[in-house]
Amino acid sequence: MKHRALLLINTHARQGENRLAEAVECLKELGFDLIDEFPEEAQQLHEVITRHQHEVDLVIIGGGDGTLNAAVDALVETQLPLGIIPLGTANDLARTLEIPNSLPEACKIIANNQVRRIDLGWVNGKHFFNVASCGLSVKITQRLTKQVKRRWGILAYAITALQVVLKSRPFRAEISINNTPIIVKTVQIAVGNGRYYGGGMAVVHDATIDDQKLDLYSVEIKHWWQIIPLLPAMRKGRHIYSDHVRTISTQEIEIRTRKPRPINTDGEITTYTPAQFRVIPRALAVFVPSNK
């Protein structure tokens, strides 16, 4: 029996337009009956998914983490399983789930029908896969234009991060766990659901996307240059052992700041402080490699 799939390709993703025809051909060869749509704006994904929810068995998304973030709320509402074809710059969710960047291999994983139920993060009504954060990461997001990502690829994250770090200034925040407040001066607060974010950095070296908890870290430095020694460790999620980094693992978190600060979820600015965070266990089914 053929599986009916809604295929959504972000043609603005780094490889989206170039790989579109290949993705359609590959999936049809694997036996999928496709409804394909290529929305011009990521905000249209929610409407497209809900409109087709009773016509298909699954949703396949070709794009990066921003595209997936735009679709996540509709996927939760419809409970359609998700197939991922990594076509973005960073592809952090695919990295967490060990889905390869090879388009044919990613398509075969979906066809193999091996699903894993993963947790999602939630902040102020918005679901996220990887990380929600405020501080340095927001400024990086604001500087990371499509043109920069297309030109430099994954290197764009490192180049932009270095520019932002040089101008970083600490801000005051209140982090509350179980109604117990902690006052911090920080340059970055990140709340992770999965392991990878920001082009391959790890929230925590051993975090998983189905451990039913959120992992918070706060970088509490006084001078910008103190973050430089942390950068190599952040690639592997081992910055948590630094004296300048506060870490918390829990299921619910509240963050307040003196004035509203933007929060990005999976690399897209979607809400502001004050922010309520929680983990939503086993919220979504995703096609993954066998034995994952």
From TrEMBL:
It holds the Pfam family DAGK_cat. Gene3D superfamilies: 2.60.200.40, Probable inorganic polyphosphate/atp-NAD kinase, domain 1 (3.40.50.10330). Its cofactor is Mg(2+). GO terms for biological process: phospholipid biosynthetic process. Keywords: ATP-binding, Kinase, Lipid biosynthesis, Lipid metabolism, Magnesium, Metal-binding, Nucleotide-binding, Phospholipid biosynthesis, Phospholipid metabolism, Transferase. PANTHER family: LIPID KINASE YEGS (PTHR12358:SF106), SPHINGOSINE KINASE (PTHR12358). This is Lipid kinase. It comes from Brasilonema sennae CENA114. The lineage of its organism: Bacteria, Bacillati, Cyanobacteriota, Cyanophyceae, Nostocales.
